UniProtKB/TrEMBL annotation:
It comes from the Bacteria. Binds 1 zinc ion. Keywords: ATP-binding, DNA-binding, Metal-binding, Nucleotide-binding, Repressor, Transcription, Transcription regulation, Zinc, Zinc-finger. It comes from Brachybacterium ginsengisoli. Pfam families: ATP-cone, Zn_ribbon_NrdR. Negatively regulates transcription of bacterial ribonucleotide reductase nrd genes and operons by binding to NrdR-boxes. This is Transcriptional repressor NrdR. Belongs to the NrdR family. Signal peptide: none annotated. InterPro entries: ATP-cone_dom, NrdR-like_N, RNR_NrdR-like. One of its GO terms (biological process) is negative regulation of DNA-templated transcription. The keyword Metal-binding applies. PROSITE patterns: ATP_CONE.
Amino acid sequence: MHCPFCRHPDSRVVDSRTSDDGATIRRRRQCPNCSRRFSTSETASLSVLKRSGVSEPFSRAKVISGVRKACQGRPVSDDQLAMLAQRVEESIRSSGQAEIDAHQVGLSILQPLQELDVVAYLRFASVYQGFDTLEDFESAIARLRAEAKQNGESVPESAG
Ligand SMILES: [Zn+2]
């Protein structure tokens, strides 16, 4: 890596530290020519293997555009979509794999999307989990209802 100050083609690493989530390494470097210091950060590349067999870099923008379709007409903001894409990337990176299936990306979207908007979730799940019949929708809805009820019951009851 060239020194950003004098363009010297070489540099020396003086310090390395890993970010809290373990996904990024920051290095402090010093230029042997002008002695100035600069930082670089290093992230493992994450590839998505598409059904066609083509592999491409993971893209949060693609996650967002896929989810946005399912969110049409729903009260979901761009900020929420950006947060969702970030969660998806974090959960995929935490699996430690360098390359994942496009289908796996879709599955990683389901949980955060369910928390965001259940209708959008159902639309999305019907594609990624291959809902074929009305029964598939019914069982998904029954599960959503059961989970909503469970969450409701976990709220502490007031004394008396
Ligand atoms: Zn330099």
